[in-house]
Structures are given as C-alpha cells and as structure tokens.
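Here is the promised in-class demo. Please do not try to memorize the tokens; focus on the logic of going from shape to residues.
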C-alpha cells in the first residue's frame, strides 16, 4: 500500500487554565503527594479552537505547503498529522512511516550519551540495533561532534544539542515528512550543510508537509498549498494561487 493520510472533520481545541488555578493544583499536589489524576481539576477559563472541520487527503507524491498568519493553526495541524495531538472530534487514517521535524529534541534524556541518543532514536524510528549503531559514525562526522558522543548530552551546548537532534532526525528517510519552518541549528557553516541535507531529504520522501512563511522554499519544494485562517482551511490550490489568496486577505 502507498503512504497516505486522510483527515475527516478534525477539530482540535485546547483548554486554557489561568495561571492561578495551575499554581494551586501544583501546590496541593506537592503538599499532599496526590497524583495529578486524583487532583480535582479547575474548570478551564476558556478553550481555544485551534483547528475546525479539517478535511484533508494526502497521497504519495503530494508536497503541500501550509500558509497562514501567526496562530492560524499550522503547527497544530502538523502535530495532528504526526500523532502528537488526538482530535476531539473527527478521525485520522494514515499509512506510512512519519518523521516530524517539529520537536526534534523532545524526549531527549539529559543523562544519555550522544551515542546512546543516536542509537535509541534510530531504533524508535524502526532500525535494528546494528543499523542504528551504523548511524553513529556518519552523524559524528556530519555534526563534528565525534569526540563528544560518549559524553552525556547535558554537557552539550544548546547549539550542539540542536545539531545532534537535527542530524539524527534527518538521517532516516520516512514516507511522510512533516516540517515546521526550516529547522535552524548551529553556526553559519553548519547551516549551509544542514540546508543541503534537509533539501535532499525533502526531495526523497513520498509525502511532504511543510509550514513556512518562506515563499521561496514553498515554491521550490511544494506543488500545492493550503491557507489556514483561524483554524479553518480557507484556500486550497497551487502554491501561487494560495500565496495570492493569502496576500489579498492581508
Ligand atoms: N498548548 C496550547 N494551549 C493553548 N492554546 C494553544 C496551544 N498551542 C496552540 N494554541 C493556540 O492554537 C492556535 C493555533 O496555534 P498554532 O501554533 O498551530 O499556530 P501557527 O499557525 O503554527 O502559528 P505560528 O506561525 O505563529 O507558528 C493559536 O491560537 C494558539 O494560541
């Protein structure tokens, strides 16, 4: 079966609590040792409807750009596609391996060595232990961190951490690649190599979804686009059509 994603009437909403209620819950739990599940939650002061009535079908070969103003719902849609958020309504069907370059350092264990991080991520992404081990040398060379890979990642600078996470996330070619803007990591020299690696990966995957404000990138890599507006799909079409729609609405 070829990779696909199908979203039907997907809705996402976030409950928003005020800072005072959250502070109170945390204090009660700290003093009583009560697990969060047993603490009575305060009512949210409001809910933010981040996505409304999203119907979307992506097939092998689709390369889609997500366009929209800040807060329009682009990152939320990527997180639904990657399985991080479960819709409150509607449903998702999908087939194919997914890699999301959205939260690349998520779940990083500070005590693990760089080498352990590479191997663990490789296994999580579906490689055998032997295949995951084989990634270590290439990633060490690409990041110029070979000498540091035996040390815990808590000893790395922020730039080193990002470089490592980026290199790991871009080593394996998934069927479906989800990206939020273009991931930036490292100094200018690394950026240049990172862009090339990213562009190679983008051209290899079967389905690409990229949220970006960079029109050049959208025109270079995407055939079609969606304009999101307050959580709804306001326009679907070629990248040029969608950019024209987006600018006319500004
Ligand atoms: N964890 C959260 N809790 C509450 N509201 C949230 C949360 N995450 C996102 N939102 C809200 O959902 C809406 C969509 O946000 P999202 O991050 O998807 O927008 P975006 O289009 O990616 O914006 P940007 O271009 O600024 O990255 C916004 O109103 C945002 O404030």
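The designed amino acids, position by position:
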């Amino acid at each position: 079966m070829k990779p696909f994603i199908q979203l039907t009437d997907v809705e996402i909403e976030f409950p928003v609590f005020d800072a005072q209620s959250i502070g109170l819950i945390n204090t009660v739990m700290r003093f009583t040792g009560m697990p969060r599940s047993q603490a009575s939650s305060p009512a949210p002061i409001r809910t933010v409807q981040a996505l409304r009535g999203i119907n979307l079908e992506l097939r092998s070969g689709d390369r889609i750009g997500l366009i929209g103003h800040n807060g329009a719902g682009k990152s939320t849609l990527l997180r639904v596609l990657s399985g991080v958020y479960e819709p409150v309504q509607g449903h998702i069907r999908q087939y194919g391996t997914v890699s999301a370059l959205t939260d690349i350092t998520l779940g990083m264990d500070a005590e693990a060595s760089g080498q352990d991080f590479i191997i663990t991520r490789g296994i999580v992404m579906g490689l055998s232990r032997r295949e995951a081990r084989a990634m270590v040398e290439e990633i060490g060379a690409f990041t110029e961190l070979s000498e540091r890979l035996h040390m815990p990642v808590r000893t790395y600078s922020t730039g080193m951490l990002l470089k490592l996470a980026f290199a790991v996330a871009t080593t394996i070619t998934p069927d479906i690649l989800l990206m939020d803007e273009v991931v930036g990591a490292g100094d200018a020299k690394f950026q240049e190599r990172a862009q090339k690696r990213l562009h190679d990966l983008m051209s290899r995957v079967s389905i690409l979804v990229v949220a970006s404000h960079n029109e050049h990138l959208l025109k270079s890599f995407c055939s079609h686009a969606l304009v999101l507006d307050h959580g709804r799909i306001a326009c679907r079409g070629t990248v040029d059509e969608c950019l024209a729609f987006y600018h006319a609405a500004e």
